[in-house]
Amino acid sequence: MTDTSYSVVLSGEAGQGLKTIETLFMVLLQKSGYHAFLSKEFMSRVRGGNNTTEIRISSGPVGAFVERIDLLVVFSGDGLSRLMDRIDAHTVIIGEKEDIEAIPTGAILKPIPIASKMKELGNAIFANNLINGLLCGLFKCDESIAHEAIRKQFESKGAEVVDKNLAAFQMGEDLSKTLELGIAIKKEAHTKKQFALNGSVSIGIGAIAGGCDFIASYPMSPSTAVLAYLATKARQCGIVVEQAEDEIAAINMCLGAWYTGARGMVTTSGGGFALMTEGVSLAGIIESPAVIHLAQRPGPGTGLPTRTEQGDLNLALYAGHGDFPRIIYAPGTFDDGIRLTHRAFEMADAFQVPVFVLTDQYFLDSEGFTDKIDFSTLPIHRKVVKTDAGYLRYSLTESGVSPRGVPGYGDGFVCVDSDEHTEEGRITEDFSVRKAMVEKRMRKLSAYEDIEPEILGPTDYKTLVIGWGSTYGAIKEALELLGRKDVAFAYFRQVFPLPKSTKAILAKAKRLVLVENNVTGQFGDLIGKELHIGIENRILQYNGTPFSVESLARKLEGALK
Amino acid sequence: MKATRFDYKGNPDIAWCPGCGNYPLLQLLKQSLEELDIDPRMLVLSSGIGQAAKMPQYVNSHFFNGLHGRGLSVAVAIKMSNPGLTVIAEGGDGDMYGEGGNHFLHNIRRNPDITHLVHNNMVYGLTQGQASPTSRRGFKTPIQTEGVINEPFNPLSVALALGAPFVARTFVGNAELTKKVIKEAILFNGYALVDIFDPCVSFNKTNDFAWFKQNTYVLDEKHDPTDRMQAMARAFEEGPFPLGILYKQADHKPTIHEKLPAYEDNKAPLWKRIRSQQVLSSLMK
Q1: For residue A528, how far is the Cα from the chain centroid?
Q2: Residue A260: which of B15, B65, B81 has the nearest Cβ?
Q3: Taking CB atoms and an 8 Å limit, are B73 and A262 in contact across chains?
Q4: Measured distance CA(B275)–CA(A553) in Å, rounded
């Protein structure tokens, strides 16, 4: 199978307005009936540098980054050198003449007179809509959608601004006719019914569907967009959104909210989460539900703040002193982002444990289209009980889960203690109570039902590729490119506890190949530790970028020889 | 002592030293709550770690005895999630001003409608006698072997500078004043700080009962508690320290839950709300 998608890359400095182009272009593509997937990489700065956004346009679903550039639109010549290993003789580069000729590339150069066109309009600010018009023309999108969007965006600034933006858009469309790139990608009506979103929004929607009504967090890339999304819904959905003074306050506030029966969450990244670990441990002993969105970026320390990595699985697995159960989910698609986050709230409430949603910069900043969800299929089950006088918060039960009361509902008292405690919730140093409480906490997940890994490809596989979370799209497409009938992909949405079927699924294969976006293969090590299955064949990438479909296909081909 | 509904009947093994100021304070707190006719089922005590933070263990009410320094964060979240509850955050000077110092600063800015009781004995008790943020200069401990060299933390002036609408100090040796101040703090609609001089009989032989008695005086009617600048001047006095309500804002300062959009049209606790399918499907329109 060959990749029939078309990749457009926008390259410019921070502050040059790539975002406004992306936003409108994605709307145009969706409403015109294309499948599309957008991923971006950017430097940790507000202005300057070089950032790029890749938009893949396709006749069928796509969900991964490719290194190949079919069409490169440059807003400054400075970034070209960074892209040289992705440019070849087939790449078309569009931009101001001096920018596209800044260094020799061997590509097909199509100069367009952006500056002189802007002079006609009197301000360079309209250049973004010239590019929008150009892309609209090249992909034969429905221009009326763009016109409406532009009018809406600028109507508050007056008729002249609207007209000049529309004129710039028209200039772009006219220019597109002179380029003759012969782009022909089939459209499909289905995407028009889908919903455009990015990974962060998928987590936010999942949280609201899961009943989230409280979020306290401290801003940290790449986790902040989830906080921002919930802030935009605070009024409509009745969510208490609080920017905490630090991550320690955030997680303690989250637990305070759950104590009253609310459904709280935190969103953070590795360094911020490191500060929260005392709270994770607190959730362990007070048996509080908690939902933790941990957005990974490369560490250690500050690492690469705006880049991607799957480097914090071990952190999520082992954060918090003492032994207590936990659950970790890792979405690889937007649909997973919604459903797993909803489920995180449900399972946290049902089993009174911290539940992690483990994402990364690549997943969160990627954009695409997903089927709308019938939310009646994602119900909420609040497990709060009315208490009687004599209520025991930590009653010893067979399941280990004690009915959870909240203050102000019933005649009982809800006493929770970070010290080891009696069934009533008061401090004790009685060793037999301690032992009973440890055992009670550790059996809480006995009734939990795993999300088993999904097997993509043949069921009678000889080789099994193992991946989790955000590598889903790249692994899936790379294997489709290779077209091997004996190779399947086990995609883990639940990474901890290891789903019950894992051992049998792995045992069926003669050869295992692990794919992870980190340096040690943290999930592979977890499998080794828990199941005593060693995976020697490891494809690991840890330079701060996501796997591209092509490079992963090459590495897999090597591993499958 | 008169019985209250807040008396815990569970016969606990109380962890305080004989003669500790926490014993009378426990009685005064319970009497204050009783006299205010607070429903124990609607009261939550939130505390961290330390001898003062054990107070909720001996009270018949809901409590969240969390981590060192975090009692205030938890208390504020509880109030933000269910404003119908009466919430008291309680702990010692190390817990609230040291480990929880950042939360102290920023929760004053939030102005939650909670009562903040801080037992101030100018020493660390549970960890056995190290300096606390409020220890006086020259105070010798096993760590500060030649005496404390840092400036003592002044919680009252800090709270006033951050716009706290209610700032008070009392001394557990003055039972009537302590009860009066605690009751006013609980009734107050907004953040109310009560710093309570509460001597440690085991680890602070310098600032003992007699020392606090000699080094404090009760504010009289000449002090205008609605004047923040006057209160600020009092807050800097330390020879002797003034006791009573230094500041009580005359006009109502909106509390955090009054300002949250989630409570604008709906006053119900968060957990009682049901989100409609319409609202949910609008997320993907």
Answers
A1: 27
A2: B81
A3: no
A4: 45
- Whole-prediction pTM: 0.97
Q: What is the ipTM of this complex?
A: 0.98
CB atoms < 10 A from the CB of A113, how many? 14
Phi/psi of residue A255, nearest 5 degrees = -70, -35
Domain containing residue B256: CATH number = 3.40.50.970
Structural domain boundaries, residue B237: 22-282
Domain membership flag for residue B140: yes
For residue B58, being part of any structural domain is answered with yes
Alpha carbon distance A533, A63 (integer Å): 30
User: Which domains can be identified in chain A, with CATH numbers?
Assistant: 6-192 (3.40.920.10), 196-377 (3.40.50.970), 384-447 (no CATH), 454-559 (3.40.50.920)
CA A508 to chain centre: 31
Rg from Cα positions in chain B: 19
Neighbour tally for B34: CB within 10 Å: 16
Alpha-carbon span A57 to A23, nearest angstrom: 14
pLDDT tens, B28-83? 999 999 999 999 999 999 999 999 999 999 999 999 999 999 999 999 999 999 99
CA atoms within 13 A on the CB side of B156: 28
Find all residues with CB under 8 Å of B165, minimum gap 6, and list them: B111, B188, B190, B191, B192, B247, B248, B249, B253
Q: Dihedrals φ, ψ of B277, to 5°? A: -60, -30
- Answer yes or no: is pLDDT of A1 > 70: no
| Closest-CA distance of chain B to residue A118, Å | 35
Q: Which of A195, A240, A261 sits opposite B80 (nearest CB)?
A: A240
Question: How many residue pairs bridge chain A and chain B with CB atoms within 8 Å of each other?
Answer: 183
Q: In chain B, whose CA is at the least distance from the CA of A369?
A: B284
Phi-psi domain of A49 (left: phi exceeds 0; alpha: psi -120 through 50; beta: other): left
Question: Does B89 touch chain A if contact means CB atoms closer than 8 Å?
Answer: no
Average pLDDT of the residues of chain A: 96
Give residue for tokens 């557990």: B172
pLDDT at A336: 98
Cα distance from B199 to chain A (closest Cα, Å)? Answer: 24
Token pair for A531: 């199941």
CB burial of residue B136 (10 Å; 0-12, 13-18, 19+): middle
Q: In this model, does residue A2 exceed pLDDT 80? A: no
List, edge to edge, every strand of the sheet that includes A92-95: A108-111, A92-95, A71-74, A6-14, A48-58, A35-41, A367-370, A195-198
Q: Which of B103, B271, B279 sits opposite A262 (nearest CB)?
A: B271
CA distance A243 to A230: 12
Q: How many domains does chain B have?
A: 1
